[in-house]
Amino acid sequence: MKKCIGKLIAGMMFVGAIGMATGAKAQVNDPAGDFLPTFTGAHNGDLDVLYSNVQFDGQRFLFDTKMNGSIGLTPTGLYVLGFDRGAGTARFGALATGVFFDSVVTITSAGVGTVRDLTNGVATPLPSSAIQFSGNSITAQIPVGLLPSKGFAAGAFTWNLWPRDTAVAGIAAISDFAPDNRNLGVQAVPEPGTIALLCGTSLTLIPIALRRRRRA
Predict the structure, then answer these.
(1) Is residue 23's pLDDT more than 60?
(2) Which listed CATH number (2.60.40, 3.30.1600, 3.40.50, 2.30.30) goes with 28-190?
(3) Any residues with CB less than 8 A from the CB of 79 and at least 6 apart, and which?
(4) What is the pLDDT of residues 106-155, one digit of tens each?
(5) Could you tell me the residue ranges of all domains in the chain?
(6) Tell me: the pLDDT tens digits for 174-208?
(7) Are residues 67 and 49 in contact, defined by beta-carbon separation less than 8 angstroms?
């Protein structure tokens, strides 16, 4: 019986650790003030990435980023999250030879989000409820159905984030890359309902196991 209880407790600890472990691996920490030398737009904090990550829970991609200033400081700011779903190419020439993408999620400083499939030109708006601004932070939820595979499984997609100042044309509008000149894989996390079910099951079974132990 001790072995049974031990396994249940270990399972709960494992579930709790999943979010912390995957979150730590998914994140990008980017130095403050590292604007690209080619950037000629407004050198404002809301275009300077400090932190970013993308997780996948089986149903949606969960995007989270923090800038070095309050979102909206630059009215012409645009946040571009590029995904490589299997058909990605490097589209920035010598500026970023390691950044591959075949679709983008764009979020304006006013909170308008759009998913664009660069392989077929289809653009789909995100509902306003899918995007949240809080100070210098942006979070967004992108349904997996808006990013159909082009060869990779959804959990194997890679990504990169680059803010832009739309007052400037071309690659001179790009202020930063996170991560720098490379893609990072999305990190799989359990759906909230799965975590709740596992934890609830464990909490239910522990007292049952204890009662059986006392009767034995």
Answers:
(1) no
(2) 2.60.40
(3) 65, 106, 107, 108, 138, 161, 163, 164
(4) 999 999 999 999 999 999 999 999 999 999 999 999 999 999 999 999 99
(5) 28-190
(6) 999 999 999 999 999 986 554 444 444 444 544 54
(7) yes
Q: Following DSSP, what letter does each residue of the chain receive, concatenated?
A: -HHHHHHHHHHHHHHHHHHHHHHHHH-EE--TT---TT--S---GGGSEEEEEEEE-SSEEEEEEEESS-TTSSTTEEEEEEEESS--EE-SGGG-TT-EESEEEEEETT--EEEEETTT--EEEPPGGGEEEETTEEEEEEEGGGS--SSS-GGG-EEEEEEEETTS-GGGGB---BSTTS-EE-EE---HHHHHHHHHHHHHHHHHHHHHHHH-
